[in-house]
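FAQ

Q: What does a record look like?
A: Structure on top, sequence underneath. For example:
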């Protein structure tokens, strides 16, 4: 067996055999899916607002509906914002993990010299 170097010593595989890069890619993919869900929620809220804005309804029932719609749209938009926050947090976590892995690899490389 030859001498150890940074290319022959790697982090042990994670459960399921995934490498660090695979985990980081999975985090990025999850963040993208969450961002997509947030955008979808915003689009649906916009469609609902547009569809009901020109209903021509009048009276007490229409005002009650508009109040409920306004509350619902606010909740959907807040949920979309929270999804955006979650995606950003995942991306920040991925970046922090990447920096730590780079630091580990640099340290390991120095140790092996």
């Amino acid at each position: 067996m030859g001498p150890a170097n940074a290319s022959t010593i790697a982090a042990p595989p994670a459960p399921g055999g995934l490498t660090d890069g695979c985990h980081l890619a999975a985090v990025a993919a999850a963040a993208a899916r969450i961002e997509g869900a947030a955008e979808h929620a915003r689009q649906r809220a916009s469609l609902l607002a547009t569809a009901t804005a020109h209903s021509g309804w009048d009276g007490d029932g229409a005002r009650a509906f508009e109040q409920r719609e306004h509350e619902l749209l606010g909740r959907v938009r807040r949920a979309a914002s929270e999804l955006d926050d979650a995606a950003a947090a995942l991306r920040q976590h991925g970046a922090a993990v990447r920096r730590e892995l780079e630091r580990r690899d640099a340290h390991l490389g120095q140790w092996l010299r």
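Q: Is there anything notable about this one?
A: Residues 1-13 have pLDDT under 50 and may be disordered.
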